[in-house]
Amino acid sequence: MHFAATLEQMTVLETVSEDTLVFLQVHKRIWPTSQRDALFWSHMRKVPNDKDQDGQDIWIVCNHSTDDPDFPANTGKCVRVYLTVCLVCQTFIDPPKDGAKITRENLTCKISYCSVG
Q1: What is the torsion angle, in degrees rounded to the nearest 10, for the CA atoms of residue 43, residue 47, residue 48 and residue 50?
Q2: Is 6 helix (H, G, I), strand (E, B) or coil?
Q3: Per residue in 67-101, pLDDT tens?
Q4: pLDDT band for position 57 (cuts 50, 70, 90)
Q5: Distance between CA atoms of 22 and 65, rounded to whole angstroms?
Q6: Distance (Å, rounded) from C-alpha 90 to C-alpha 110?
Q7: What angle do CA 78, 81, 82 make, to 5 degrees?
Q8: How far apart are CA 110 and CA 21, in angstroms?
């Protein structure tokens, strides 16, 4: 998992819909604590901009712990993490001068993040 350095394993347990999945994540053990896992649903959706069809992309992500009798908490070596996470992400494009091609240098992202655990 190159995008999340703390993840040891991630499994999609269920595809509820095209924008909602149930995950089981096992995180790397950080000494001296016990290893952690998390069982949660994750919902991701693009927010339409009805006022400006050419407006910048806005995405929301909501993650919340859930239970599954097939994956009970705290029965093995892992301690279950319980979480609620909300994330809003907005992309901004700073148009390049002279009509040049848009590159990574022209992109910025505003992120609002809230979590309860």
Answers
A1: 140
A2: coil
A3: 999 999 999 899 999 999 999 999 888 888 888 89
A4: confident
A5: 9
A6: 5
A7: 145
A8: 24
Give the gyration radius of the chain's Cα atoms.
18
pLDDT digits (tens, 9 = 90+) for 10-35: 999 999 999 999 999 999 999 999 99
**Which amino acid type is present at position 99?**
G
For the chain, the maximum distance between any two Cα atoms, rounded to a whole number of angstroms, is 61
In a domain, 106, yes or no: yes
The tally of domains found in the chain comes to: 1
**β-strands 35-46, 78-81 pairing:** parallel
The CATH number covering residue 43 comes to: 3.30.530.20
Residue 2 covered by a domain: no
- SS3 of residue 37 by DSSP: strand
